[in-house]
Design brief:
338 residues; binds magnesium ion; 12 helices; binds thiamine diphosphate; two-stranded antiparallel ribbon; alpha/beta; Rossmann fold; 5-stranded parallel beta sheet
């Protein structure tokens, strides 16, 4: 039923490629493959988008898709503001090209995707039904969890993983939905795998879950009838963080899978609930003018807001983009070499 193709090296490359395309969508209107040094004209005139959540989305998406590789698996994204990440992954997989002939997986398609993100007449800034596989207008947090349960209702063959932000976890709808496993668990329905993205921050402040001790958060999750499983990538070095979190993810998914199978056999078990701990804006710039960006609310939207006019910010952006070594992963004619 489940794939055995969980290749860490491949997942790392996919995450690097998705992170690069995420950042390129937010900032660039030209020079998408960094053929030359970034200049002001390469930067979009109005910078929009939400970076902070995206690296976590790219990690979860690629670990899950590598583990659950069958048609009965689906992924539900709570933070619709993480659209650049979703779009990046769908582009890499060729799903955008299926509905939009210009989104070819070569240089011209990459340019098209990046230039038209949050651009007049182009792609939106949040998930919307024009995106393949999306049925809801993104922007209002809280419903993802309930949707996941609705999706598997009466479909024991289905598994869905639902990613919710720790800010979203403060909404009434998401918190009330924590009770749904009491009604919808069991062998007649499918399996829901909630993943709480514990990046510690919402728009401009810390989250309550982010300030709880590990023990207190685990007990909260247990109290709702789940089995908490922690995956973490909060090391100082971004590449090391991703390395750790992929290993943790693989173990967590195996554990979750075993619990789901036991529930399907009719055993009484509390379903799994993954807590994914990462820095907000992981792999992004660490600081700007002495202010912390990575692992802080300041990475929520556009972390280098003056990249068009400020040479220093532009240089940080160029270093940031280059850190993904995208050119090793992409052939401008043949597309992705991952
Ligand atoms: C119901 C609702 N309330 C408020 C907002 C405004 N809003 C947009 S993003 C955001 C923060 C989300 O934080 P979190 O869920 O932790 O996501 P992160 O970006 O940290 O992954 C908020 C409050 C919203 N979109 N929907
Ligand atoms: Mg958050």
């Amino acid at each position: 039923m489940y794939g055995s193709g969980f290749s860490k090296e491949k997942i790392k490359k996919k995450i690097r490629a998705a992170n690069y395309i995420t950042v390129a969508q937010i900032f660039l209107k030209d020079n998408f493959l960094l053929d030359r040094q970034l200049i002001s004209d390469d930067i979009k005139p109005r910078l929009l988008g939400h970076w902070g959540t995206c690296p976590g989305v790219n990690i979860a998406y690629n670990c899950l898709k590598s583990y659950f590789d069958d048609e009965n698996f689906s992924f539900i994204l709570g933070p619709g503001h993480g659209f650049p990440a979703l779009q990046a992954n769908l582009f890499i997989e060729g799903e955008i090209e299926k509905v939009d002939k210009k989104a070819t997986r070569n240089r011209s398609g990459l340019e098209y995707i990046c230039k038209n993100f949050s651009w007049p007449g182009g792609f939106p800034s949040h998930c919307t039904p024009v995106t393949p596989g999306v049925i809801c207008e993104g922007g209002e947090l809280g419903y993802a969890f309930a949707m996941a349960y609705g999706y598997v209702l009466g479909h024991p063959e289905k598994t869905t993983a639902v990613l919710i932000g720790d800010g979203e976890f403060e909404t009434a709808t998401a918190l009330a939905s924590m009770n749904l496993n009491k009604m919808l668990s069991g062998k007649n329905n499918g399996s829901v795998l909630p993943i709480l993205h514990l990046n510690g921050y919402k728009i401009s402040a810390p989250t309550i879950a982010g300030r709880k001790s590990e023990r207190e958060l685990n007990e909260l999750v247990r109290g709702f009838g789940f089995t908490p499983i922690l995956v973490r990538g909060d090391n100082e070095d971004a590449e090391a963080a991703i390395d750790y979190i992929i290993d943790d993810f693989e173990n967590a998914l195996k554990e979750a899978d075993e619990i789901f199978r036991a529930i399907k056999r009719g055993e009484k078990k509390n379903p799994p609930f993954i807590i994914m701990k990462t820095d907000k804006g992981l792999t992004g710039p660490e600081e700007l003018n002495g202010e912390k960006l990575r692992g802080n609310f300041k990475s929520h939207q556009v972390p280098l807001p003056n990249a068009k006019t400020d040479k220093n910010e532009r240089e940080i952006l160029e270093k940031w983009l280059s850190s993904y070594r995208f050119i090793e992963l992409f052939d401008e004619e043949k597309g992705f070499v991952i």
